[in-house]
Automatic annotation (TrEMBL), chain A:
Keyword check for Ribosomal protein: no
Pathway: Alkene biosynthesis; ethylene biosynthesis via S-adenosyl-L-methionine; ethylene from S-adenosyl-L-methionine: step 1/2
EC number: 4.4.1.14
Protein known as: 1-aminocyclopropane-1-carboxylate synthase
Family statement: Belongs to the class-I pyridoxal-phosphate-dependent aminotransferase family.
InterPro entries in UniProt: Aminotransferase_I/II_large, Ethylene_sulfur-biosynth, NHTrfase_class1_PyrdxlP-BS, PyrdxlP-dep_Trfase, PyrdxlP-dep_Trfase_major, PyrdxlP-dep_Trfase_small
PANTHER family to which the protein is assigned, alphabetical: 1-AMINOCYCLOPROPANE-1-CARBOXYLATE SYNTHASE 6, BIFUNCTIONAL ASPARTATE AMINOTRANSFERASE AND GLUTAMATE/ASPARTATE-PREPHENATE AMINOTRANSFERASE-RELATED
Organism from which the protein derives: Dovyalis caffra
Assembly and binders: Homodimer.
Keywords, sorted A to Z: Ethylene biosynthesis, Fruit ripening, Lyase, Pyridoxal phosphate, S-adenosyl-L-methionine
Automatic annotation (TrEMBL), chain B:
Family, as annotated: Belongs to the class-I pyridoxal-phosphate-dependent aminotransferase family.
Domain annotation Aminotransferase class I/classII large: ranges: 41-424
Species per Swiss-Prot/TrEMBL record: Dovyalis caffra
Pfam families: Aminotran_1_2
Cofactor: pyridoxal 5'-phosphate
Keyword tRNA-binding appears in the UniProt entry: no
Protein's pathway: Alkene biosynthesis; ethylene biosynthesis via S-adenosyl-L-methionine; ethylene from S-adenosyl-L-methionine: step 1/2
EC number(s) per entry: 4.4.1.14
GO biological process, one term: fruit ripening
Oligomeric form and interacting partners: Homodimer.
Keywords for the protein's UniProt record, in alphabetical order: Ethylene biosynthesis, Fruit ripening, Lyase, Pyridoxal phosphate, S-adenosyl-L-methionine
Name used for this protein in its record: 1-aminocyclopropane-1-carboxylate synthase
Annotated InterPro entries: Aminotransferase_I/II_large (IPR004839), Ethylene_sulfur-biosynth (IPR050478), NHTrfase_class1_PyrdxlP-BS (IPR004838), PyrdxlP-dep_Trfase (IPR015424), PyrdxlP-dep_Trfase_major (IPR015421), PyrdxlP-dep_Trfase_small (IPR015422)
Enzyme class label: lyase
Length: 482, 467
């Protein structure tokens, strides 16, 4: 780490690599960016399957926009509102925005007698901003959060970079479909004690990224009892709540604590966003919903650093208060995700590739390629991954980038492309697997650019981040017009 | 075990300051021409509401930008997906060109050196994270924007050490004041990482002289530290001596590509010049690639909505519009300011001679019962509760002298401004009547002193600029 560079005198934070973008995993992005797939213009390019986006329902949204020109403060129908909205910088946010978001959150969770109070809705700069803010509110530098593995690599940056907070993994493995066990939680907590690290909370993502699974009632209750016993916080990232496309139904933490009178509500906080459920990552709509008044109040003051543009608040308020649209959207979104998942997993199944069988949510599959590994090591996983990027030409995410301890798992996104592209991806996988099975000898011409980082320690806190915010000069997203 | 973080339980967010308390009072009883004509008039919020009609008519003429369309085709999907922290290239290009235009095109900016952030609030905090460690310090000339106490210090752990400026020279920055502040920091064991100035100044409403700019550049060169120039009000300069940006000063000193060149950073925003605080459009401009790189990554925590980036890129790319807007906006601000200054003059109250901003720095010393901050607070409470005007007391801006108040003039209609002036006039008259009663009771010598005191403050204006 370089602190001083020609008297530039930058901070440690700025000069370090805590942002995580020096990771070799950006090889995948680079490969995609230098050779992006296009159905007609570049059919042999790399297909982007490392970006968890939901592109399946824009037609519904566009249809709604056409019918509701007033939702934009810039159209002739909505222009009257322009100045009021443009001037409004109150960090409480527009009342109608909060009402609409609370309404949407309720509907997504199936109206199971859960209600969200609009006055508890706090804005943030996407879920990214929400996580950082929550860490600032709950922990001091040097304190820690427990996180079950595998987990979203962005957490390493969002929770740690500028806050100085630590993350301690809670080990999960495929022996029980990566369920979070009480034992694993207690072990992680005790390890922290031995290291003299103060644990301030537990962070869970439910539905899970990258697993695509939801937590069952028993696990949720066990988690609630654990945090209450240890008197630590519980942060539930429910960013994928509306992507649960088949049984069993999603159970929100809101539901669990509603029934549990013994739970100390001051310990429970929800992080939400519209980036995945609605497919609006560009609009930066992040939400913190805390049951703790002091946290809510603090987070709200901190939201000054990442408020949602009122132009966007206004649009969302309009859209999400239209109950007919919301109900249709939620239904259709699930249906299309389910269909995609089915087609994709079926296609994989045809060549003997299995995905985590308990997955019923998310925008991705958790694919088990351990059968294709030379040996069950992370090194072999990396080698396989390089082959997939450069020869099969698919940008997928290797399990170790999610801190998965078991080699051979890959996260593959399926909701960010059209049907045809997905078929192309599947056929490439089929070809690759069939060839691998036929040819016992390893493929020649294994090219990989950049250094192969070897992961020796199972405890990989610091290294790998697969940021959704591409470090590439030109975002591949803008060009991906399928 | 402490349940929340220290940051959550302290009050470094600064919201217990009187600056914000005045707002709260206003919220309880806000003036409305029809519904609440005796309510409190908001004069504590530096907003620019004078030129919305120009924006509205542009929008009416440009339906595509408004409706997520480009050349008639919907680009909603692309925008909804666009979360690249490098920002929309077309927007950054338009923004840097707008910034150049505001500076009379005497300087140009490179769109690859600008970082988009969620408002100037986020820009300032991000720069602190990039340039300083917890426990290090930045020097700021007083009086300064109260929000800096939160933006620069709260989550970053950075300290602010004031550079004391006084009315004796119109609150200009002097070399001794800079050195004194630096020494003060040393005394407090704080390593100074840089100086942060707001130019044009909030709350003074004045532009920095070339002298001051050169002083600053010499100072940071000598000390080997950074300079942040918050130029958020750059588009609000409405009369001479005109605006000299720090970039222009650097150019004139032939500093391109020198070491000091890389230590100067600009903060900008569209909240004041365009009157769009709700859209959260801020920016950091730096010549230092490492700062740009680190700040870009940090902007993940507060990106600008792509919907907004798109709209504004269309707006700011329309050069006919921007040219007209900049000049018309400045005209209107100038006229408004004149209205306020003249109105205050009639009441016997003077302002610091200013040429920019959305507010006047008003001298109410003669209304103080004593030359103390307690008296200032007393006066402020009276003005909020009895006169029903929310203005900002100088102490909330860390002013070293009691009796100064920041009064905003661009966030209301002309009628409301006239009403506010009337109320103040009546208040001053009643204060004078009271003091007349007191004078009759006290000795003649005392009354002489009071008149002498009053006369001396009429000379509070800036010395002529070299230009």
């Amino acid at each position: 780490m370089v602190f001083k560079l020609n008297n530039h005198l930058l901070s440690r934070i700025a000069s370090s690599n805590g942002h995580g973008e020096d990771s070799p995993y950006f090889d995948g992005w680079k490969a995609y960016d230098s050779n992006p797939h296009h159905l007609t213009e570049n059919p042999n390019g790399v297909i982007q399957m490392g970006l968890a986006e939901n592109q399946l329902c824009y037609d519904l949204i566009q249809e709604w926009l056409k019918k509701n020109p007033k939702a934009s403060i810039c159209t002739s129908e909505g222009l009257n509102e322009f100045r009021e909205i443009a001037i409004f910088q109150d960090y409480h946010g527009l009342q109608e925005f909060r009402n609409a978001v609370a309404n949407f959150m309720t509907k997504v969770r199936g109206n199971n007698n859960i209600t969200f109070d609009p006055d508890r809705i706090v804005m943030s700069g996407g879920a990214t901003g929400a996580h950082e803010t929550i860490a600032f509110c709950l922990a001091d530098p040097g304190e820690a959060f427990l996180v079950p593995t595998p987990y979203y690599p962005g957490f390493d940056r969002d929770l740690r970079w500028r806050t100085g907070v630590k993350l301690i993994p809670v080990d999960c493995d495929s022996s029980n479909n990566f369920k979070v066990t009480r034992e694993a939680l207690e072990n992680a907590y005790e390890m922290a004690q031995l290291d003299d690290v103060k644990v301030k909370g537990l962070l869970i993502t439910n539905p899970s990224n990258p697993l695509g699974t939801i937590l069952d009632r028993e696990t949720l209750r066990s988690i609630v009892s654990f945090i209450n016993e240890r008197n630590i916080h519980l942060v539930c990232d429910e960013i994928y709540a509306a992507t649960v496309f088949s049984q069993p139904d999603f159970i929100s933490i809101a539901e669990i604590i509603q029934d549990d009178i013994e739970c100390n509500r001051d310990l429970v906080h929800i992080v939400y966003s519209l980036s995945k459920d609605m497919g609006f990552p560009g609009f930066r709509v992040g939400i913190i919903y805390s049951y703790n008044d002091a946290v809510m109040s603090c987070a709200r003051k901190m939201s000054s650093f990442g408020l949602v543009s009122t132009q966007t608040q206004y649009l969302i308020a309009s859209m999400l208060s239209d109950n007919e649209f919301v109900e249709k959207f939620i239904r259709e979104n699930k249906r299309r995700l389910a269909a995609r998942y089915r087609v994709f997993t079926y296609g994989l199944g045809q060549v003997g590739i299995k995905c985590l069988k308990t997955s019923n949510a998310g925008l991705f599959c958790w694919m088990d390629l351990s059968g294709l590994l030379k040996e069950k090591t992370l090194k072999a996983e990396m080698e396989l991954w390089q082959v997939i990027i450069h020869e099969v030409k698919l940008n997928v995410s290797p399990g170790c980038s999610f801190h998965c301890l078991e080699p051979g798992w890959f996260r593959v996104c399926f909701a960010n492309m059209d049907d045809q592209t997905m078929q192309v991806a599947l056929s490439r996988i089929r070809t690759f697997v069939n060839n691998k099975v036929d040819n016992k000898k390893p493929k020649k011409n294994l090219r990989w650019q950049g250094s192969l980082k070897l992961i020796n320690s199972p405890r990989i806190y610091d290294d790998f981040i697969n940021s959704p915010h591409s470090p590439m000069p030109q975002s591949p997203l803008v060009r991906a017009r399928t | 075990m402490r349940l929340l973080s220290r940051k959550a339980t302290c009050n470094t967010h600064g919201q217990d300051s009187s600056y914000f308390l005045g707002w709260q009072e206003y919220e309880k009883n806000p003036y409305d021409e029809i519904q609440n004509p005796t309510g409190i008039i908001q004069m504590g919020l530096a907003e620019n509401q004078l030129s919305f009609d120009l924006l509205e008519s542009w929008l009416a003429d440009n339906p595509d930008a408004a409706g997520f369309k480009k050349d008639g085709q919907s680009i909603f999907r692309e925008l909804a997906l666009f979360q690249d922290y490098h920002g929309l290239a077309a927007f950054k290009k338009a923004l840097v060109e707008f910034m150049a235009e505001i500076r009379g095109n005497k300087v140009t900016f490179d769109q690859n050196k600008i970082v988009l952030t969620a408002g100037a609030t986020s820009a300032n905090e991000t720069l602190m994270f990039c340039l300083a460690e917890p426990g290090e310090a930045f020097l700021l000339p007083t009086p300064y924007y109260p929000g800096f106490d939160r933006d620069l210090k709260w989550r970053t752990g950075v300290e602010i050490v004031p550079i004391q400026c006084t009315s004796s020279n119109g609150f200009q920055i002097t070399a001794p004041a800079l050195e004194e502040a630096f020494q003060e920091a040393q005394k407090r064991n704080l390593r100074v990482k840089g100086v942060l100035v707001t130019n044009p100044s909030n709350p003074l409403g004045t532009t920095m002289t070339r002298n001051e700019l050169n002083l600053l550049l010499s100072f940071i060169t000598e000390k080997g530290i950074h300079l942040i120039s918050d130029e958020i009000y750059s588009g609000t300069v409405f009369s001479s001596p005109g605006f000299v940006s720090i970039m222009e000063a650097l150019k004139d000193r032939k500093c391109e590509n020198s070491q000091v060149w890389n230590r100067v950073h600009i903060v900008y925003s569209l909240s004041k010049d365009l009157g769009l605080p709700g859209f959260r459009v801020g920016a950091i401009y730096s010549n230092d690639d490492m700062v740009v790189s680190a700040a870009t990554k940090m902007s993940s925590f507060g990106l600008v909505s792509s919907q907004t980036q798109y709209l504004l890129s269309a707006l700011l790319s329309d050069k006919k519009f921007t040219r007209n807007y900049i000049s018309e906006n400045q005209k209107r601000l100038k006229q408004r300011k004149k209205l306020l200054v003249k109105g205050l003059e009639k009441a016997g109250i003077s302002c610091l001679k200013s040429n920019a901003g959305l507010f006047c720095w008003v001298n109410m010393k003669l209304l103080l019962s004593s030359n103390t901050f307690e008296a200032e607070m007393e006066l402020w409470k009276k003005i909020v509760h009895e006169v029903k005007l929310n203005i900002s007391p100088g102490s909330s801006c860390h002013c070293t002298e009691p009796g100064w108040f920041r009064v905003c003039f661009a966030n209301m209609s002309e009628e409301t401004l006239s009403l506010a002036i009337q109320r103040l006039n009546s208040f001053v008259k009643s204060m004078n009547n009271q003091s007349h009663h007191q004078i009759k009771k006290s000795s003649r010598r005392k009354s002489l002193t009071k008149w002498v005191f009053r006369l001396s403050f009429d000379h509070d204006h800036r010395e002529p600029e070299e230009r």
